[in-house]
Amino acid sequence: MKKTLQAALTATLLALGLSGAHAQDYPSRPITNVEPFAAGSGTDQTARLMAQALSQEYKVSVLVDPKPGASGFIASQFVAKAAPDGYTLLLTTNTTHAANEHLYKKLPYHPVKDFTPVALLNKGHMALMVNPASPIKTVGDLIAEAKQRPGKLSFGSGSSSSRVAGELLQQMTGIDVLHVPYKSNPFAITDLIGGQIDFMFADTSTAVPQINGGKLRALGVSGTKRLASLPNVPTVDEAGVKGYDMSYWSAVYLPANAPPAVVKKLNEMFARAATSPGVLGLLASNSSTATHSTPEGLAAFQAEESLKWGRVIKAAGIQPE
Predict the structure, then answer these.
(1) In whole angstroms, what is the distance from residue 103 CA to residue 120 CA?
(2) pTM surpassing 0.85?
(3) What SS3 class is residue 252?
(4) 23 pLDDT band (50/70/90 cuts)?
(5) In angstroms, rounded to a whole number, what is the distance separating the alpha carbons of residues 154 and 108?
(6) Is it true that 2-124+249-315 and 126-221 share their CATH fold?
(7) Homologous superfamily of the 126-221 domain (CATH)
(8) Beta strands in the chain (DSSP E)
């Protein structure tokens, strides 16, 4: 009890100290931007371009530190335990902060209590892909093949978005396919290219370069509208699975009890970074949408998204692990 009170007092004093003179000097040393997925993932691409823009604009070093694995547990725990001084932040997605609480019976972090919301960054959709050598050329072909060979086709996923997208396709079409988990989507894509799995959904930041490069074939996109980056690819809904719609988002968080002045400054910094040519170019190339918010707006959005993901996961018949 004594240790708990001391820890709480220390956090309070730190916050009070930084909310005054120290916050006025923020940032005065390198910032570590932790993200929960592997190099090359959509989140990693966003993190690196944001880091570059922040470094150029504010003349401060921003280090990107990928900590992939365990569905984002590793990165989330690391940041949750860091000092709430604004120098260790988490650039993450709905995987860690809306979906995981419905996919797992027990999390090693609390998606609300252990973090301070900073800003919502963007929203996007996914592409459903197969190996170009696959005889499956349409969503209809995939469904037909899966029904002819129940339990034989496999799909990979390296995030909750990609996993739930595949599970929802199962639930809505009545097919039976095997889920193969990965630390991050780039690892699953490598196996899809190599023929170890049959199909997967992946965020457009990761998927579009593989599709345009001819390494993978797109069967559909997960939103309700076609994407400018893949104009000839129908939505899964258009392809016959009526009502299908899945999206993802990314956002920035600090550890709990971060000083309000630092949170406000970081929010402003990310709003400016989001307008950099590199970030805008990435969003345009994969048809994602820039969606900046206040810290309070992110908190409200996260609460709504948690309810939505809970409904989707339950509808997909996924049992918490």
Answers:
(1) 22
(2) no
(3) strand
(4) low
(5) 29
(6) yes
(7) Periplasmic binding protein-like II (3.40.190.10)
(8) 31-35, 62-66, 88-93, 115-124, 126-130, 154-157, 178-181, 199-203, 217-221, 248-255, 289-290
The superfamily in CATH containing domain 2-124+249-315 is Bordetella uptake gene, domain 1 (3.40.190.150)
How many alpha carbons fall within 13 Å on the CB side of residue 90? 33
Q: What is the pLDDT of residues 61-94, one digit of tens each?
A: 999 999 998 889 999 999 999 999 999 999 999 9
Q: Which residues pair with 64 in a beta bridge?
A: 33
- At 192, phi and psi to the nearest 5? -65, -45
> Distance (Å, rounded) from C-alpha 120 to C-alpha 298?
6
pLDDT at 19: 47
Specify the pLDDT at position 6: 52
Rounded Cα–Cα distance for residues 244 and 242 (Å): 6
pLDDT at residue 146 greater than cutoff 80: yes
What residue spans define the domains of the chain? 2-124+249-315, 126-221
